[in-house]
Amino acid sequence: DIQMTQSPSSLSASVGDRVTITCRASQGVSNYLAWFQQKPGKAPKSLIYAASNLQSGVPSKFSGSGSGTDFTLTISSLQPEDFATYYCQQYSIYPWTFGQGTKVEIK
Amino acid sequence: QVQLQQSGPGLVKPSQTLSLTCAISGDSVSSNSAAWNWIRQSPSRGLEWLGRTYYRSKWYFDYAVSVKSRMTINPDTSKNQFSLQVKFLTPEDTAVYYCARDLGVIYSLDYWGQGTLVTVSS
């Protein structure tokens, strides 16, 4: 199985901060990489697909980049509603696999 | 607007079979562009993709190897829904189970059900 490793596992940030989360795949996944946001007690919400494409309705403060094995999710200006856990997921090779998550907390 | 509504038991005994259903509105289980997935989440295993089904002139089924021998996904075109069955449950199967749609290999998982907490305990 392809292992997805996110860093950091958690971070503390302030409202207005620029935040970057990285995701590394144990082998190349081309651009078949998605990012999700999850809040407590809720299902994950799709933010980005194909590494850099914003899902419909997702604000442009979210952006993604990367290809192959190394990917990043950036939140340009953190707002109170953005405090959540973020997951990457590869859908290049079965079984599809997820990162362990990055929890973004309020400083 | 696509909506996925899950139903099923919250408590199941060890060795029994779990059955969950995901009712679809705003799309069709037999769509030629969508696929229908089951994913689960637990503190010990994180998010774990279990399998998917899709229709492209015939039905296709893909399963994670780790659960393939115990799991079945069934589409039901008459009710526009799909289901998950997991046999021979153990406490390690305790998790929140989600259904989700994907629009093929480009778009990944875009719509998710609300989740069902399944506890395996006697």
Describe this entry's structure for a reader:
The complex is a heterodimer of chains A (107) and B (122). Chain A has 107 residues and is mainly beta. Chain A is built from no helices and eleven strands. Chain A has strands spanning 4-7, 10-13, 19-25, 33-38, 45-49, 53-54, 62-67, 70-75, 85-90, 97-98, 102-106. In chain A, the strands form two sheets. In chain A, strands 2, 4, 5, 6, 9, 10 and 11 form a seven-stranded mixed beta sheet that branches. Chain A starts with a strand and ends with a strand. The mean pLDDT of chain A is 97. Chain B has 122 residues and is mostly beta strands. Chain B has strands at residues 3-7, 11-12, 18-25, 35-42, 46-55, 59-63, 71-76, 81-86, 95-102, 109-112, 116-120. In chain B, a hairpin with a 6-residue loop joins strand 9 (95-102) and strand 10. The interface between A and B is medium-sized, with 22 and 22 residues.
SSE diagram, text form:
The complex is a heterodimer of chains A (107) and B (122).
Chain A: E1 4-7, E2 10-13, E3 19-25, E4 33-38, E5 45-49, E6 53-54, E7 62-67, E8 70-75, E9 85-90, E10 97-98, E11 102-106
Chain B: E1 3-7, E2 11-12, E3 18-25, E4 35-42, E5 46-55, E6 59-63, E7 71-76, E8 81-86, E9 95-102, E10 109-112, E11 116-120
Parallel strand pairs in B: 2-11
Antiparallel strand pairs in B: 1-3, 3-8, 4-5, 4-9, 5-6, 7-8, 9-10, 9-11
What is shown here, in short?
The complex is a heterodimer of chains A (107) and B (122). Chain A has strands spanning 4-7, 10-13, 19-25, 33-38, 45-49, 53-54, 62-67, 70-75, 85-90, 97-98, 102-106.
**Computed Rg of chain B:** 14 Å
- What is the mean pLDDT of chain B? 96
- Low-confidence segments of chain B, ≥5 residues, pLDDT <50? none
Summarize model confidence as the mean pLDDT of chain A: 97
| End-to-end gap of chain B | 40 Å
Annotation field: number of helices of chain B: 0
In N-to-C order, the SSE pattern of chain B is EEEEEEEEEEE
Please give the largest β-sheet of chain A.
Answer: 7 strands, mixed
